[in-house]
Amino acid sequence: MTGRKISEKTIRRLSHYARCLRHTRIKGKKIVTSEYLAKRCSISSAGVRKDLAVFGEFGKQGSGYDVQELLANIEKILGTGKPLHVIVIGAGNIGQALLESGLEGTGGYSYSAIFDSDPEKQGKIYAGIAVQPMKELRETIRELGDNIAVIAVPDGEGQKCVDQLVEAGCNAILSFVLEPLDVPEGVKLRYIEISTELDILTHSLMRTGRIGR
Amino acid sequence: MTGRKISEKTIRRLSHYARCLRHTRIKGKKIVTSEYLAKRCSISSAGVRKDLAVFGEFGKQGSGYDVQELLANIEKILGTGKPLHVIVIGAGNIGQALLESGLEGTGGYSYSAIFDSDPEKQGKIYAGIAVQPMKELRETIRELGDNIAVIAVPDGEGQKCVDQLVEAGCNAILSFVLEPLDVPEGVKLRYIEISTELDILTHSLMRTGRIGR
DNA sequence: GCGTGTGAACCTCTTCACAGCG
DNA sequence: CGCTGTGAAGAGGTTCACACGC
Q1: What is the pLDDT of residues B136-166, one digit of tens each?
Q2: A34, A183, A176, A37: which is closest to A94 by C-alpha?
Q3: CA→C1' distance for B110 and C9 (Å)
């Protein structure tokens, strides 16, 4: 089932709303207003209403949005909310940390496997999951079905790793590797860039005169 | 020295150009074209030229941009390129992994200290840096001078941690904690959200019919 | 000729103000 | 009366085409 085109910015906000609603649900609150979501997601209430109204009339005028119902709708729009396997490539510091940290409260994701090309690391167990050799990648991906890969391999090994993933049938990758990576048409790739986030903070500090540069 | 207002989107691109230029410099290349940067940063060449032209005429018509000179200019605009201390709060899996991974090739950043409120963890050494108790936060920040804090503490401890940082004089925070955090006016705060990145990938997979939802 | 710098057109996103429904 | 849904206005960002300098 293919949905309509939604901008990345909107998807990011929907993801925030979903996270906020899960948290709200746990607290036992049943109804929220656009103002409530707005405050917690650092956005205007009009923005929240506009985001939600595009996909249907989820709200009840005079009261607000039903938490459970709105969350279900957002998860349907995003395609999240159902279990989805996340596999990790690279059992170094980052890879281990990801597994140990887990993905609880994220709407269906869970780490299901970890791979490393280093025989020294293979067989070690993190968060109950044994490190597998790369040659088992294809087989494991076939067994798991739908999945997203997170790569956290040393600099210089990123492209090789991506190629193996693509070849094994993975078509969504989240990279902690900063090298520009090539993927075939149709394979989705995103980056987590700590250094860029630091740059943004640094610029902000400089601009407001909080550090001398 | 306060600079003009630049959008976050532009700063993010400048950060990418800088990273690319550092890499290019290592390869020994002296001149690059807007097309060269465009390819590697997944953007149009007109976009690259527009970004750069706003801050001065860095390019030479007919040839391109001098790598070293352009990098220096971008770093000046961003306020990066000079050494800047990054301190980590939380010596759990993520905190350890960050220190061990280091910040080489990022334009001046380096991890300089790590703190944890758990006495069990205090004194342990990661990447040559000993875990300090939180009560030493203020003193260390004063000694280090300009800094950015990265917080990687357990869920529920984020706000307390932020409050202590702000109180100790830190005014830029990068958070791995997903709770919405409050900071006073003037303190800069950003989030690294793996679950949101996964949501964006999931939606993209669904939209292109690569997973059934 | 090659590649930069730039004005203009175009498109997207955000904000505002308010009508309308419960 | 409260809060949603929405058209209109405004702001910001991107793309295009081309003049200009090396």
Answers
A1: 999 999 999 999 999 999 999 999 999 999 9
A2: A176
A3: 45
Domain that holds residue B108: 84-196
Residue ranges of A 103-142 with Cβ closer than 8 A to chain B: 103, 106-107, 109
pLDDT for B36-77, tens place per residue? 999 999 999 999 999 999 999 999 999 999 999 999 999 999
Q: How many CB pairs under 8 A join A and B?
A: 217
- Binary contact (A203, B109; C-beta < 8 A): no
What is the three-class DSSP state of A98? helix
Do both B184 and B137 map to the same domain?
A: yes
Nearest to residue A11, comparing CAs of A46, A51, A69, A45? Answer: A51
Residue showing tokens 């167990």: A125
The secondary structure of residue B92, as a DSSP letter, is S
Which CATH number fits the domain that encloses residue B96? 3.40.50.720
A160 and A101 in a single domain? The answer is yes
* Radius of gyration, CA atoms only, chain B: 20
> pTM for this structure?
0.96
Strand A125-126 versus strand B84-89 pairing type:
unpaired
Sequence-separated (6 or more) residues with CB below 8 Å from residue B127: B99, B100, B102, B111
First to last CA, chain A: 52
Residue B209, token pair as written in the block: 């019919």
Distance CA(B79)–CA(B90), nearest Å, equals: 27
> Alpha-carbon distance B161 to A122, whole Å?
36
Output the domain CATH number for residue A47: 1.10.10.10
Q: Is strand C less than 7 A from the beta carbon of A212?
A: no
